[in-house]
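Each letter names a residue; the fold follows as tokens. Both lines appear below:
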Amino acid sequence: MRNYGCRRGCIHYWLQIGYLIGKLQLLGVGKPSSGLVIGTLLTLTLNTDADAQNGQTHVERVAAAALSLPSGIITQMRVTWEAGSTEQLNITEAYIGHRAASGDAFDFSVTPVPLLFGGVANVTIAAGTTKASDWASFAYNKISDLLIAYYMGGGTGADMVRYTTGLGANYDHFNRAANDAATVDKSGYGTSAGVSTIKKIESDGF
């Protein structure tokens, strides 16, 4: 006499496993913990290499008007960087936050939120490739300018920035030869017009 109970039980078990795997695939990899639908706020076109910026803190200001904002509340964001075509990009630490209502265009309003990579502050991005940060808990108000500050400490022969175009007055790029990314009230920054290493900014709330 054959034992069909095990066979039927096993089939039911594997069907359940397949269902769970399918659900996980539908959820997707890299979704924010809020469970809300994600979308792209901004994609920058990075063109030819400009010059190496190792040992520099860069602050990128993006006006709210330049962002494709969602209808919902933003609670989490992430940023994708792209290295130059010939040199790796080394980010020692990176932060995101609102621009201060007064003061310099590169000043944070309050202590900024760290952007991590696999749970750690630093990352090395191979030449010609991209890397997204982890999702960061950041309640962007959709009104203030958005600031992203990061320090590149790769040393000689690294940290190439790229030329970019298209955002005009809605975008600024500032730099200073110091590890100053986390500072709220910054000073001593110059302007590097039309360059960036940031490829994309995403959020939940869509």
User: Anything to note?
Assistant: Confidence is low (pLDDT under 50) at residues 1-29. The longest strand covers residues 89-98.
